[in-house]
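Quick illustration, no need to memorize.
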Amino acid sequence: MILALGLSGAFLLLGPAVGVWAAGPAAAPLQPVSATDLAQEISITDLGAGPQTVHGQAGSINIAFPAPAAPLASSGSFVRVFFGHSATIPPGSRIEVAVNGRPLSDSALSTGTAGGAVFESRVPQEILSRDGPNLLQAHFLLPNGGQAAKGLFGRLDGQTLIHYALQRPAGADSLALNDFPYSLIEPASATSSPPLALVLPDKPQAAELGDALRLTAAVGKSARSRRVQPKVITTGQADWPSGVVGPAVVVGRAERSPLISRLLQAAGFSKTDRGWRSPGGQVAGTDDGLLASLISPFDGRTPLVIVAGGSEAALGRATDALVGANSTALATSTAVLTGTAPTAAPGPAKRLLSLAGLLPPDTFVEGAGEHRVVFGVPVPAIDNGQAGSVRLSTAGPAAYVSGPATLTLDVNDHPLTAPQVALTSRPEQVVLPLDGDLLRPGIDGFEVTIHLSGGRTQLFIPGSAIALPPAPNGAFGLEALPYPFFDPTSRGSLSVILANGQSATLNTAATALAALGSRSLEAPPRVRVRPLAPNRGFFADSPSVLVIGTPSGAGQTAGGPTLSLHLGLKGRADLAPVESRGTTGGGSAPVGWLDEVTQPDSGLQAALWVGGTDTAAAQAAAAALYENGLSHRVELVAADRSVRAPIGAAQEPVVSTPLELRIAELLPVVALAALLFFLGLEMTRLRRSFR
């Protein structure tokens, strides 16, 4: 099979002759990978890094991709390499690609590939590590002499990826539940990214919507740079299932939707007088969750995940199991969830990370030239004002360095302030300070650059580690997201407060949860959905609150809408996101916003308002949660989803306690005091009467 890819006007043919390309006519769009091609894809961008460039006549780029999330299939894995190089290259230039030291391709370069090219190389299963990192090695050889060598370079682009083909249960014709969420994530090879349909019964109940939002966050966590585009659809709408070609999560109580009942039957469940019976013969009780993963019976190709049950508790139980799916418990296509799954108490996030789990144990660079090693580091929420450190062990028993050699370290495409380190043939430990303001929660890209005049050095041996800064202490802004909303040490739930029940607001909520999930290292918390109630305490149900949309009755300032958050005895916080940035929002131009406020003297209690002057602006604000540039307490988002730079310092929300609110809050206390006083008088009267 030959596939054509279009890249900046140059078209490359990919076929059985792996690593060979040629110019061709306009390309036909790639077809989406079928539902039977289950895979996990990880790109350089997913590691938190950008394009990687090495300069000079020879250089190597080494990318450490994490281990696959599930068992590998016997075949079908590959690497897709997007690359470029200097426009003028000498004859004989080439690129060599290997994985874990096993050569895969050795291909000639030409002026036609300088602006950008791509090829695939199949990776045999036996050379891939299943429980540790896998190292993609690209070696650019651009032979030339004299001054001309200074302009030579080779580059791997951020789309470069590894495609892990994942294994299916033996004899299974449908998807397994532990394929979630990868069965719902479109591969990077797809020319378009269809929406992730969240299919709910008509007039969805709060529990149904909350579980759907939680599952969306779980998909976003695994999709990372392939941004999820969720769309909430009710089963009564005419555009589903016929109008949606993308994957779908169907959530709801079966008795509320004939469509959900039909899908359960298509998955092998049967309805009995005692309840739903699984294909294995297990009968589900009212509070038992039902799970099914299958190919759509409507089109024969779309992957579906069904989360159902007879009660709110059943839906929650099924969602809990799916979010924490493992290959042992959910290795089949259907399941009945009974009882309460054991949950371990969340421990503190790891802040001392050994590089042994982030890089293969025998990672060497060799030969004169520039060598880059890139790996992703899981970073929890940190105090950006504090510093950490990086301890690197270099050289090793098989290392030898001839001539000058240096090492530098970049984090998230920014160099450390520490100077470059000289390397020798002797084993050494290098300790570099790690500025907290270079880090962000999620997967951060660490890029080590080594310049060798000759010889060979081992990059990391046991003893290398990264010490991260401590957790946030005190004030924090949007740069800390998803903290504290996905913080595992909180009470374990997140409140989502909806300004209204319109479909646009539901889609905005789903986009916000998917984006926060993409920034998270943890499984998403349970989600509680409720409507906006003006006089209800915002933190009554959870210490973390998302407010989605702009209520029709919101207050107004000269700059735009305002929102008052009821904080109980603390009073209220009046948010005016447009005005707080010293702008009127550009006149009539729509504007969205992200406005975060913390409860005074309350630790982790925080609320984030995702809103806008219209529904499209609010949707753009939710999508902006994917961006890494958020750095203030308030951010404005334009219609094109660009985040505006602040005009001056963002003001803190106005926290006030009106007299009537104080009286209202004190009424229960006054009533209790009056009751106790009355009881005291009665007791005194009774004692006197007995005398």
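The chain has six helices and 42 strands.
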